[in-house]
Amino acid sequence: MSDSVKSRTGGGTRRAAQAEATRRRIIHGARELFLRNGYAATTLDQIAGAAGVAVQTVYFHFGNKATVLKEVVDVLAVGDDEPIPMLDRPWVRQVREEPDGRRALAIWLSNSRVIFGRVAPIMKIIRDAAGADPEMAAQWETNQRQRFIAHHALAEQFGDKQALRPELTVEEAADIVFTLVSHEVYFLLTVERGWTPDRWEKWINETVAGAILR
């Protein structure tokens, strides 16, 4: 490879890394502002200021405030900004490969606890704003749909493991998990009622296992 090609390749790599670093700063700054001020009161100018960039840079990377929020939620849900869907994450593969239904459920719920700890506060902001803001309503519906897809996939795995209660269909099991393992229930117990995340995890394991597993 010639020096000129190497130089161009290296420059492109550096620019890509700089662009990713800028996106991370914007997402981090937006998250702090959304949590402190709410969605409606947060402006793109404020997000740009928190990230130390021009507002045009925010527009370039995200286009609008709703897309910034979506990226904040996506990063919080998986814990990083790698382009790997949640259902392709290593811990989900552990759930699939674990033959015992109760141990598989425990792996799922342990990771759910970590995810809820990151994402529940921002989801409460979205839910509270959904009634008056169409963009927030759309974001809430998208998240609920994605959460159901994940829990339906989990219920299918329990079916494949022959771990479901015999009177339950996969659809019914998915409905139960979707309802119980939710941001709303987590927030009610850990914030409104003061439970620790440890207590929530113990309770949700016992409750879901008793509701859907043999």
UniProtKB/TrEMBL annotation:
**DNA-binding region, residue intervals:** 43-62
Extract the coiled-coil ranges from the record: none
State the organism of origin.
Answer: Planotetraspora mira
Gene Ontology molecular functions: DNA-binding transcription factor activity; transcription cis-regulatory region binding
What are the boundaries of the region Disordered? 1-21
* Ranges for domain HTH tetR-type: 20-80
Task: Indicate what this protein is called per its UniProt record.
Answer: TetR family transcriptional regulator
User: Could you tell me the keywords of this UniProt record?
Assistant: DNA-binding, Transcription, Transcription regulation
